[in-house]
Structure prediction request, 125 residues.
Amino acid sequence: MDPGLNSDGLTYIGVDLSQTSLTESEQAAVAWAFAARHGGELVTGTWEELADQGYIDKEHLQWEDGILFTIAEKPVFGSYGLKPVAFDAQKWRSGTGAYFFSSCTATQAEDGHWGDYSVGSEAIS
Prediction:
């Protein structure tokens, strides 16, 4: 949606999966595969942790040479044959460069693969 949120000037790809039900080793595997697929050097942590490590400029709310992807699982209510995963996701580069997805749902197929997902709402800045 916004080329500035993609590969322009990116060195680092930050991934925060700390709010998911994945184990630490699963989080590491997913983050590594994601960064490798998108051609960036992987760094993991929350926004606050990456800012404390000097990647993100807290004062100017920007990550000049990186981008942070965050997924946060949400509780699922109701009865389902295959249990869906509800989540919010965001792609953040700066206070004026972010893409947010809310109330998303993904369902695992009977063969174990994850397929399509739905987005409840989205916002871009």
The chain has a mean pLDDT of 88.
